[in-house]
Amino acid sequence: MTRSFWSLALMLLLTGLCLPQSSTTYVTADIRRVGDRLACKCGSCNNTVATCQMLECHYSSPARQKIGELQKAGSSDQAIVDNFVKEVGLAALAAPPAQGFNLLGWVMPFVALLLGFAGILVYFKRFRKRAVRAESEPAPAIDEKYRTRIEQEMAEMD
Amino acid sequence: MENLGALAIVLAFCFSVYAILASLAGKWKSKPFLIVSAERAVYSVFLLLTTAVAVLLYALIAGDYRLAYVAQHSNRAMPWMYKFAAWWGGQAGSLLLWAWLLSLYSTIIVFQNRRKYRDIMPWATSILMVVEGFFLLLIGFVVSPFEVLMQGKGIVDVGDGQGLNPLLQYWTMVIHPPILYLGYVGFAVPFAFAMGSLITRRKDDDWIHTTRRWSLVTWFFQSGGIILGAGWAYAVLGWGGYWGWDPVENASLLPWLTSTAFLHSVMMQEKKGMMKVWNMVLVSATFWLCIFGTTLTRTGLVNSVHAFAQSSIGHYFFTFLAVGIAATIYLILDRLDYLKTESRLEAVLSRESSFMFNNLVLVASCFSVLWGTLFPVISEAITGEKISVDAPFFNKVNIPIGLFLLLLTGVGPLIAWRRSSWDSLRRAFMWPTVGALALVAGLFATGVHHVYALMSFALCLFVVLTIGMEFVKGANAIRNRTGQNFAAATIELTHRNTRRYGGYIVHIAIVIMFIGFTGKAFDKDITAPVATGQSFHLAGYDMKVRDIQQGENDNYVWSRATVDLYTGGNLVKTLEPERRGYKASRQPTSEVAIWRRLNEDVYLNFAGSEGSKAVIQAYVFPLVSWIWIGFWVLTLGTLVCLIPPKQKLVRTVEPPPAKARPAVQEAQLTR
To answer: Within 10 A of B671 (CB to CB), how many other CB atoms are there?
Structure first.
């Protein structure tokens, strides 16, 4: 009897655990627009506040609620984002701002790509120069020496 | 039993050290018996590690809860296959998997080459055993899987364990980590041969011929591991994401990108004797990126949902990486004279240059992923402020690079080796270009205005048409000559050059995956709290909750919603998403219900409840099934590449033009 009681109690407890009870803040188009610029800082995903789909996420759910409240109060998108940055720091942003040192984060991949292109073009250019030089340069002396010897030998054969 | 397992690991460590010393001494003193002895030590390492694995598996399946590892990652209620999977569910066990797979690979390599490549083999064996010894050092002396739970001086049996993380209790998780590790570990073999070739100052390409198939199979395992991980995330995490740019996901992508570049550039070395230094760099980068990826999951360098619990092994990994990379760079620089190219590029418009661009884009993509993964650490170290680099950054940077790579996938194969003319390119690309532009116009007219999606679809069609034309032209030529039907002629064509046409099939697989990725631009979702009997609407579907049931078994309690899907008033499908609460870990998980179709998946997640209402997260994911189909096509293409061709690859190193020869001779004389 006691064992059955505890089994039932455990089952109810776990059922409660797997069925969260409190309210959810759903993502409207307005919330999504701002939430896409903010990182979910729950620590278990790399999503944005808009795309984190974990129900009752301890970060994104209140963040969405706050975005909705600030929008109702008439705040602009940028003002809401600034508000999050003020509270959480730059880590609140889903991607680093393209300014100061963090600009490097954005430009480096493309700089690397361009440098690679430049490297290949330099390779091509060097090759083409080498080919042109090979065609335009006068025949080296060593050829002349061989040619003279061949002519001599041909003459001897005659 | 645990003493047997621990002893086996310590002995395996000793044998790996012996194998290194005996190989080197045998090579140095020209004593073949020492080299053979080292090879037998390699076999012994494998046997000892197999013993250790058997002991750990026995402990997991029999439930020996005196062992800390068993108590932390297994429990009595788990089905046996998840008990088996608990082998790699934790830090020590996964390191044991790494070491065991490497010992298996080393054994195969040593056995296969017991009469071949006798000058390279001692070095390759030593390098493999250095890597093996490093992992055995960790599991033998730092994080042993055979530690027992102690209280005072007594051993404690806790009776039952905490169980495997419920998110890992899914069938793909039983095969995803081993397959991914088969890829990670496998890249050690081409690396070992490459270094062996450098150390022995060989100018030939033997290391490439020996490891070509190995590289391809390893690359396939790496691809399979990544796709299985994506499939697991899609089906288990409850929000339909298959790639989140998590640092650990990125870590698996990095070696895949460099190894893909290697598989392309290696053809330049085989066919033209070019890019020898570059191939050394790529094969080395691939191996060290595998070690870096393993480091990333275990050291807490960056935050990740996939990371193992942090431990003291980070210093060991960083030291191993630093010393290993420094030694590799030194070796490559020191042996540059042995890596000189055998022929020159003849024209900018050639297959050779397309390979260079392909390699550039793949390596640039690898750099951008690595840069984005590490940038939070770099930025914090320099500015002192934490930043986030999440999916939006990676998408903005990598989508354009990925589309460019897709374009090269179509362009590259149609450009001739040595030299191509604009006229032949115009003929080859005219109809694919027309088809792609027509598709863009058609899609735009039907309301698709997403720029990247339009570009992606257009490029997908472009690549399919260019590759399709290659097959059709080749098959028609054979058909005209032999009278075979088209299907037989296509098979004959593929069999004549399996590597080329298998490669085309792999390219088609990548295109198919891109179609699936592009569908992401059109996802739709809704989160609806609904009572039994109520309905909600999403993307043309009416969804009605018919019933909600509850129950339990030994492992978990569950709640299941029965949801009927209607289109146009007709019942088309019934889905049953489930919510589970695992008893041992007290952790909830979702068992999503997915209606998979070629055009779109309907994906339901029983996310929880609000009072008497069930909260259902419903999604429609267009085209996502094409990602998984792409993987099967990739498998087919890889298998075709592995079939021996009817025609052998012949190196076509062209002598320089007659007029250029004297200048080249002179350059060599004056160098």
So the answer is: 5
